[in-house]
Write a structure and sequence with these properties.
The chain is of the alpha/beta class. It has a domain at 51-185 and 276-348: 3-Layer(aba) Sandwich (Rossmann fold). It has 11 helices and 8 strands. The protein has an 8-stranded mixed beta sheet, with helices on both faces. Helix 2 (128-142) crosses helix 3 (156-168) and helix 5 (201-212) crosses helix 6. One of its GO terms (molecular function) is peptidase activity.
Amino acid sequence: MKHLIYILTCSLLLQSCVNQKTESHEVTKETKEDINYFDYTNRDDQFMGGIKMIPITTPKGEFKVWTKRIGNNPKIKVLLLHGGPGMTHEIYESFDGYFPQEGIEYYYYDQLGSYYSDQPKDKSLWDLDRFVEEVEQVRIALGLNKDNFYLYGQSWGGILGMQYALKYQQNLKGLIISNMVASIPDYQKYSDEVLAPQLDPEVLKEIMSYEDKEDYSNERYLDLIVQNYYTKHIIRMPVDQWPDPINRGFKHLNPDVYVTMQGPSEFGIKGDATLKNWDVKDQLSKITTPTLAIGAQYDTMNPKEMEWIANEVQNGSYLHCPNGSHLSQFDDQKIFFEGLIKFIKDVDNQNFDQDNS
């Protein structure tokens, strides 16, 4: 009996040592992975903390655009296309609270004309096809390819992302179209027929009086739009509670780019804005890249049309943010990031299923 007890005791001690060794190995492995995520070995951007000014060639000469890398993951690299046009990467600073802990490498990027990049004054540069070629030049400079390249575009960035995929999808591993429909006329119709009538009648009447006169730069007009429309459909918070990155993004907005391509505000596209007739609904079925479309219940974009995008591309999934608006990375943050990260991880692990949202 004593012999049996001795054997059992030795066995338990041995198992304990094995478990401790395994746990120690796992801790070492996790620590090593954590360190690798911030490893700058063989990277040329350490001196600038991940920042690179990338030269791009345009029909009007060479300029530089600003990028900043966060993390180090050879399998997952996400390039963030900001909205506007003419906004900045700052509206994505909330990604810092979610992507690093998931080991996702990502790149902030200010497009040409935006605050941290060169800002030439030639309006002919504010052209969709030219911006597509700019993204391709940035991709090459950053070393992104079909084995690791995820393109995320929100609002105008979604337009740019769709247009890029239609020409260069062979370079993509995954595509995310966030808070953007596939047709500007449809966007305008939704604003005119669904969202505008939800405004207080007197407020709407006053807004329309300025629009009828095309007095878009009037401070009263802009204040009415921000206080009554933006707080319901851009970011669902009182203006005095807007996150600092949003305030900085609006402060740094380049009006030359924005007005030329979008018009005076997010209250639809007005005047002779160059994006006024953009529509790729009849082309989306050509996109075979795994694609996530993100829509929000209170968005300036019809969420049903975002869901339609997910069904129209060949390998699509839809993420709905029930409490979110146009910037749902802030006003429906938990659902937004859980769904976005799941999509990226599913594609990486080859577990992505169409309509798996």
